[in-house]
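Progress note, project year one: complex with zinc ion.
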Amino acid sequence: MYRSAIIPMTALLLLGVSCSQAPDAASKGEPGKAKGGAEELKYGIRVQSGPMDSILLKDYKPASSLVVPETMVPKAKYPVIDIHSHTFMNGIKTSEDVAAWVRTMDEVGIEKSIVFTGATGADFDKQVELFKPYASRFQLWCDLDTTNIDAPDYPQRAAAELERCYRMGARGIGELSDKGSGLQSEKRPRGQRLHYDDPRLDLLWKKCAELKIPVNFHVADHPSCWQPLGPNQERTPDFQHFNLLDKDVPSYEELIAMSDRMLERNPKTTFIACHLRNQGNNLGELSKAMERYPNLFLDISARDYEIGRQPRAAAKFLTRYRNRVMFGTDMGRDKEMYQGWWRLLETADEYLPGRVWWRLYGLELTPQVLESLYRSNALKILNWEKL
Ligand SMILES: [Zn+2]
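Model obtained:
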């Protein structure tokens, strides 16, 4: 019989961890130093000062001595539909850029990319022209018109522009983003912003349902953005400019609740919450939302570090909701970026380098789950109607 899943108390004491100390050691200021700068026993080791004391957190890049299998996956197991990419972020300005992107897509196994143009009006139409030579490889989505949101005709105007873009080829709207400052582009005081649950958007959501146009929405941001930039900040300093604590924005919870109300009031509209709705840190809570709102779908873009740090829970989640979660990148268009995703999702490799300080672990998804995530959900859920 396998016996020792639980570490006996004596072993914990040998490790120098006492019950009263263990849970909140990190929150007690400088670990390793007792008050007055004296040395302290930490996990049974006498912590001493040395050259590493002056290394800045942002410069700490430990070299791993771990020797484990490394499985390179040059091409995805199934032809992939990447449902989250951006013209701007992917540096697409000319037809040569589009051609180069297609070459990379061929190499790594991306059949189609959904492109968020971030545009309406003439700018959107221009992008339709840009992608035309490769129309079968891309699906273009338009943005939300947010000009003059206080005018009484705003709801009608926004819906009409969406319909116009649809006729030009748009097959979705997004990525819309509200990290607290609102969906409108100009800065506005609180109370005058356009949030997801604003009644002025109801007509637009209805129009999306009518045209079978899914909405890709970003709500709030990673929860660590509402935590202090200090010794207990969860993410690496590279992410510190995203911090929202003490900024003039609603709380993480308030923002999530706004999107709940939007989902609730518009059951016929297909909403795709990107980045696992910024709840990838708490798959239990996210599951509750999935149960509550059948019109809620997800993309996993830019949350490699969430699923990769909890590979067993994440694989279970992706299996349970295998009909409602889709693959997306949102991380540019480098060959290595795509291949990193294949390794994370398809293999059982361990201790993969990630973008945050922690390492990732392969999810080894089953062929069925992989196929739904990579393509069949997108084929079912997205609108593929020809012009
Ligand atoms: Zn994005």
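Residues 84, 86, 175, 330 surround zinc ion (CB under 6 Å).
The longest strand covers residues 80-86.
No further modelling is planned for this target in the current period.
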